[in-house]
Amino acid sequence: MDYEKPHNPRDLELLPQDESKVNVTVNIWENKIKETDLLDDDDVAYGVHDNGKAGPLQKRRHSCEKIDIADDDGDDLEDDTDNCFTRGVERVQAAIYGFFNKYKRQLKIGIVVIALILYAIYFCYALYYNFEEAVALLVITVFVVFCFAYAYMRDNFGSRIHSAICMPLTAFADKHWNVIRWLSGLVIVILVIVWIIVDTSKNPSNMMSFVGLITIVVFCFVFSKHPSKVRWRPVIWGLILQIILALLILRTNWGFEAFRSLGNKINTFLNYVEAGSEFVFGELWYNHYFIFKVLPIMIFLSSVISCLYYVGLIQLIIGKLAWFLQFTMHTSASESLNAAGNVFLSMSESPLLVAPYMKTMTKSELHAVATGGYATIAGSIMGAAIAFGLSPSYLITASVMSAPAALAIAKLFYPETEKSRADDVKDVKINIAKYRNIIDALSGGAMSAIPLAVNIAANFIVFLAVLEFLNAMLSWAGGLVGYPQVSFELICAWVFMPLAYLMGVDWEDCFVVGELLGMKIVTSVTVSFKKLAIILENRELGLEPTISARSEVIVTYALCGFSHLCGIGMTLGALVGIAPERRDDISSIVVRAMIAGNAANFLTACIAGILYEGDVVPTLVNATVTSMVATGFEDATLGNLTLNNVTETISLT
Q1: CA pair distance 412, 220, nearest whole angstrom
Q2: Three-state secondary structure string covering 258-275
Q3: Are 435 and 353 in contact (CB under 8 A)?
Q4: Terminal CA-to-CA distance of the chain, rounded, Å?
Q5: What element of type H or E holds 69?
Q6: Where are the domains of the chain?
Q7: From CA 238, how far away is CA 223, in angstroms rounded?
Q8: Angle between helices 313-329 and 295-311 (to 10 degrees)
Q9: pTM score, two decimals?
Q10: What are the tens digits of pLDDT across the range 86-127?
Q11: Could you give the angle at which helices 363-375 and 583-611 cross, rounded to 10 degrees?
């Protein structure tokens, strides 16, 4: 059937042809009628003429009248949005967008200037109103201004500064590098040794920590994979960086206060997870503190870290820290980047930063990657330890100090004998999960932490059950010869007592600390953290067993790592999953890396013991009590909750 010609062009409608044909939109119909076999006289009249001139139908497209569209079933779908009003709205939108596109640079500058003026007013008034409370704001503002100033200088004057200052110094250093290297290294080593001897001479316990440090270094050298290939620069610089960090925290009031304040802020921040726990689990969630507070903190912190990744802050920090480690210790780019990532990430997450390079890594680099994972803890585990009641400042310091310690011990225990393919950290790209927006980052981070939380809960159940069974068997076997008090903890305490004393722990505390070290190496770091939290709470309440403040510092640093037997399987699974073709190489280094990770933790603990002086530490109140007070519960209830519910639940007393 042909299309009828309407009498009035303004009332033009697309009439159906026959039942076998489906009506289409104007655009599709116009394309169809261009085909020769579908054209007739009427089609030409109302379509497109051969000479290219538009017919009445094509002109009709530019009018504001309504065009009826029919679907495949023949039902009319009236598109009321295609009218003069909507077209006018679109033109207004186009004009606005065009204005913003034309003047977007000026608008951005204006918005930034207005925002800076408003922030300056707020900042000055905050300092005037309450300077003590605004110190944190002052520190953040100074840091941000410094970063922007550094970026501006780098982008605009970086090449000139490099040509005028850096290149001449580099050329001179390259020319006389051998003399500078040996002379500076010798001077630094002599100064450090002399200073340590003089500083520790007034405190025998500190001197014992120095003996422990030398013993650990000698042990790693004697049992090194290639003792003749050891390069001492990363070892020496790793020790120096650790000493500098420990000096800032343990020997300066401002450093100690800064890290204590940072730890308190982090603790307060993590306590916000209680709002989510109460909403999901109810008002009595605190009756099951571990499952409803400790594990949610891991999820919360993982989500926050994902957001920081999304905005680029974590990449910036890791990149700068990796550059600093490579510049000072002269380690390869891939192992430096992995060590920097271990400050924030777990042993299974940090290798993802260097995943594209693991296929071509040397065995020494693979060993350094695994050692870095063993010697540090993830931010989520740190959050759990803080929730248990451990000192946030010590945990933060230990996590940062363990990065150079892991590289130092790794390059001593398994020296480099091959040529690395990743020379410059600037050429190594940080590969991270891609998120669409900040909400996606929050959700993705929370979801990625669920396996970790479930894994930790499962490990607690299994290890505590196995530990209870093992204690029952040992007690039964010991009872046959008159010693039913034999237990796994008792054996660990006796075995690791000499190591605890070597690190500088007070002798009266060595039995308890030896037990913690053994539990950490054989079972899990989270189990030993919880046991340590109970011991510290005993000190607050005047109960036994407990340890002194000095022993607390040393053992906290010594426990701050994933270097336990179960970590071997976790590391093997993570690294082989990234580079399955390197399975044989990875399998050959994981056990050695676990030993190196423990040595790095003990080395960090020795340095803390060398520099620690005085018995005054921040008042440590179990995080259970702290969080409960924050929510307004009665003191009597808190004491019963902490001592009975939590202690009996973990079953470590």
Answers
A1: 6
A2: HHHHHHHHHHHHHCCHHH
A3: no
A4: 93
A5: strand 68-70
A6: 9-87, 176-618
A7: 19
A8: 80
A9: 0.65
A10: 888 888 888 888 888 888 888 889 999 999 999 999 999 998
A11: 50
